[in-house]
Write a structure and sequence with these properties.
It is a single chain. The protein is built from seven helices and seven strands, in the order ααβαβαββαβαβαβ. Strands 1-6-5-2-4 form a five-stranded parallel sheet. The N and C termini lie far apart (62 Å).
């Protein structure tokens, strides 16, 4: 134990980086649990769409949306997302909503904004449209 303390005091930068990595690792496991949103895989998303009539919200750019999107999905423009303008979905606040982006990273921020505005069942498609396509699931063009 004394050697560990001596090493840490002699190598402050290295010790600080190690501590930061440990904190980030812990946060990556805790953040999804305390978030108002949930990540779903392709199978869970399909179940939500078929059994609970979930709304699929595609937040990719218009050209990407037109190139291929999940059947029945709606699109929000980037400026609407930046402004937090989800008025198009106001009547569907209690329905399951699946937010989709290209790889699943951008959708998390949008889903958190929606949860803060009172949407009760917001989900993020893990892996985004790329995972959907990779699983050979249907796209509408």
């Amino acid at each position: 134990m004394d050697q560990l303390i001596e090493f840490a005091s002699n190598n402050l930068i290295l010790s600080g980086l190690w501590a930061a990595l440990v904190i980030m690792l812990i946060y990556s496991f805790i953040a999804p649990a305390i978030s108002g949103t949930k990540r779903v895989d392709n199978h869970q998303a399909t179940q939500l769409i078929n059994k609970e009539d979930a709304i699929v919200l595609d937040i990719r750019a218009q050209k990407d949306f037109k190139a291929g999107h999940i059947i029945g999905s709606r699109q929000l423009k980037p400026e609407e997302i930046r402004e937090g303008n989800f008025s198009k979905l106001e009547k569907d606040k209690d329905k399951p909503i699946i937010v989709v982006c290209a790889m699943g990273n951008t959708a998390a921020g949008t889903a958190n904004k929606m949860a803060k505005q009172g949407f009760t069942n917001v989900n993020v498609l893990s892996g985004g449209i790329n995972a959907w396509q990779g699983a050979s699931l249907p796209l509408n063009k």
